[in-house]
Amino acid sequence: MKKFFAFVAVAIFALSMNAKQVVFDFSSDAGIAALGITKPDAGKGTNLTSALVLDGVTLTPADGSTKTRVWNSSGNLDLRVYASGGSLTFSAEEDITTIDVVGTAVAFSEIAEGTSRWQGEAAKSVKLTATATSKITKITVWVGETPGAEKIDTLTVAQAIAIADTLKDNASSEKKYYVEGYVVYADPYSPTYKNQIFFMSDNPAVKDSTFEAYGALPKLGKDTLPLVDGDKVRAFGLLKKYIDTKNGNKKQLELVNPAVEVLDTVPGADRSIPEVPTITVDSALKIGATLADNATTTEEYIIEGYVAGIHTFFNSDFKNENLFIADDPAVRTLDPAKAFEIYRGKPNTKVATGLGAKVKIRCKIKQYKGTVENDGSSGTPFDVLEPSTFVPDTLTVEEAVEVANAVSAVDAKTDVYYVVKGFVNSVTSAYVKKYNNASFTLAQFPNETEGALTAFQALVLNADSAKVKTTGAAPSDLYVNVTGYLTKHGSPALPQIASGAITAFVEAPNMDTIRVDAATALADGLALAVGAKSDHIYAVTDIVSSAEDEDEGLQSFSMADDFFEAYLAHVEEPIAAGNKVEVVGRLKRVDEFVVQIEGGKARIIYPEGIENIELTEKAQKVVVDGAVYIIRDNKMFNIHGAQVR
Questions:
Q1: How confident is the model over 449-476, as pLDDT tens digits?
Q2: Burial bucket for residue 466 (CB in 10 Å: 0-12, 13-18, 19+)
Q3: 502 and 482 Cβ atoms separated by less than 8 Å
Q4: Which residues pair with 304 in a beta bridge?
Q5: Within 13 Å, how many C-alpha atoms sit on residue 552's CB side?
Q6: Are 325 and 302 in contact (CB under 8 A)?
Q7: pTM of the model
Q8: Which of 108, 149, 107, 146 is nearest to 126 (CA)?
Q9: Alpha carbons within 13 A on the beta-carbon side of 282
Q10: Cα–Cα distance between 204 and 564 in angstroms, integer?
């Protein structure tokens, strides 16, 4: 039985007298059975507690943060090896020349990043050390020669330069190479990204800075470490002839993001990583002011501060946002001369940060066209130490326009952001997936033909993007919350919710027509305090009891014996006592008894109250189930004039 399983699990090819491949299959029932591994139940694993032996090759596992095990994921089997100590050691009587590791995740310090093959110095024992969780389906071990496998060439620095110099400017080689040499100059090691830039030479005494390893990941075994001058290394990657236009077109030859194996270290070298200093926002601004345009510090800093302004609100796609921070939690500014910008920062909370939140970021400092910011890498993480307690005011479109027009100068923004509620009446720039935004105009009421406020390049939640795809559409049923800063914009002439705001499409408000007594009861049910307004918009209809004169399209009047007021309502024609009207807007509690709609929109439903209608011989009033209808010419109309039969 044992021999049968061994035959199923592995193919052994007599390629030469001393060349064969042994396949450890962890993806099939027969494969793990041949290795003596019990198949785990779905969602569970079988720990490897002893060495696996197959056709003269021994695989000895070691545990990492979690035990090395075969895992069953809904019937799919794989071998899982974990970082922090996890490893696989292969041994054989003959030299092992190549190991191919196949799986959905392969992360070992001895295997170049982005590849799945170990092909180092032939040895009778090879250890692969996990740097992250590896999920492996098959491992092929070549003992002896490696037929059919392309050998990766190992170059000296001089040979690498010669090959790279034959390439076109800024072109990369088709093949990847190992390059061995000595470190002759190393940039400071980045603890954040665990990499550093360094230059290589064939002679450690020759400070030749021609060959550059860019963004390298230096590793000694499973550990990363800072390189120092004199270290002997082997780097892996594509060769490239890079033209540095900022340094007089000086040619540079580099490896592209190579993984670097440290072959020999300088004895007693100081490899300590300097402690990153914590500085204030003011100090960061002063450091940035000393830099040339687009220059970046070589040192990292930890900067703590409070969110003073939000340049671009939290992007739900990329989980990032652009913030300005200051030392004083009370400061509110979008002025880059007064605050440090966190550019495309990713909060550890993965949600919007908000004004006044205390944050900490570790980064290099960059001077970008007068703005001092982090080093510009998209997705720089930062910690939220204290959450925001700021709650923005919610405004109608009319209120937002008033606030925007009160801004001191054209294109200046308000100190804080607001939530503006309104109806989309025109999409001026359809949704763009690349930027996850759209532009549209807002009106206070549904079916308005002209917008009063522009939402410019507002971020759109994914679920809402389809609603604003068509430029020029007038989807007045779209009721939105737009969060952003208000500005008195010069072109277009409409006031704006500034670029970078965020839009949430919400259900259309309760537009049911309610009588005054229902409006008063609703205000009671909402527990509106004196001076407070409802979040939603309502349509209130009843008979006008008294009315003031109309003045430039605005009029105040009372309904139902003055228990309801329409204050400075927008009217298309003067309204008089006895008219039946509809007033659309947010309910406001005036005092214990009176409710009003302030700045709403009013229209006459019927010239006079239904009880005062003068019927002709051709029309008659009927009551059906308590509702009043008018019958004329064998047609039935409700009191709003709509035909019902």
A1: 777 899 988 888 766 666 776 666 555 5
A2: exposed
A3: yes
A4: 360
A5: 0
A6: no
A7: 0.51
A8: 108
A9: 3
A10: 90
